[in-house]
Amino acid sequence: MTESLEGTPIFDGETSRRGFRMNKLFMSLRTEANRERFLADEAAYCREFGLTDEQQRAVLERDWQAMIDLGGSIFYVYKLAMMDGRSMQYLGGVFTGMGEADFLAAMRAGGRRDDRGQ
Amino acid sequence: MAEVIWGLATSHVPSIGAAMDRGKTDDPNWKALFDGYAPARAWLAEHTPDVAIVVYNDHANGIDLDFVPTFGLGTAERYEVADEGFGRRPVPDVIGHPELSLHLVKELIDEGFDLTVFQELDVDHGFTVPLSVWTPDPGDAWPCPVIPLLVNVIQYPQPTAARCYALGQALGRAIRSFPGDLTVGVLGTGGMSHQLAGARAGFINPDFDHMWMDAIEKDPARLAALSREELIRQAGSEGIELIMWLIMRGALNEQIRKVHSDYFVPASNTAAGIALFDNRVSQPAA
Fold it and tell me: What total of structural domains would you count in chain B?
């Protein structure tokens, strides 16, 4: 994007290139066999997919913001969150710093606004 | 010739399908959404087309980031419902209509829309949730064969709103030139305003959504003029999915009749919209 919008990650070609291996790992978690293999040795699984050290740390520590910053697509990152039993509202609570309960309450109250978008 | 008899715009949020699959449609957090679907479902049940076309995007289930087709069309006889991680939705696989698909591919490529052709494609919630919004209890089969029209909306640069509207117009012409008598329904899916990641996650813009809902019926050219950046700013980074409504709208006539529309917040982190249009309306003299 030529113009960035605060608080709004844009999954563009450069980001996709950076996150390619990590997003492939997330995609692989659709199958039970792969989830079992991942959970048995997460670091080894990350190495197998060729993640960078930073990406591997983000995955192992479930640093959701870092996964996005390091090239994760939210739709792919969500595969890992689902495996952990985490909802999109949980992730919203992390990304906004609000926590899941407050984030969910804000959504049920009609969603969040910003100063520029309205 | 084939004729588009209706257009349906609807959100495709996975939790809408999950609420149905788990029998939670009367839950207080969901009931108003499903009550808002009822008039559209009743009308659609009386107007089953011979074929439907679902304009949607995949979410890391049928395709991955190895290939990012801007526009794609399925030509298969059958599309399996994807397992998105924890078992497939308990809904029927999708029967396709290869004859119409192949006609559309040829006509659209002749018009300059160089589509990617899918001979095999598992369809995810982006596709099956709109079918469930239309037909909550399909039994063993959906009401008619369905053709997937895929749009890249998750990796920037997405196609422009103008290009989507033009594709829809070409799709309408391609349908009308099919040499058999068929009635067709076209579904445009996704939206409305929402954003899943970043500090602005949870963003909802009801003013924009209401403007969009009104203009999709009466002034789609105004929506087609919106830039990608403006759409992301006004509708959120995932709200840009609304460009898929413009493909549906482009396939309809200039004059249409709104059968029903409704708006609900939140379906998960999303503003959910539905709009149903009857395309069998007499047109003003050219």
Answer: 1
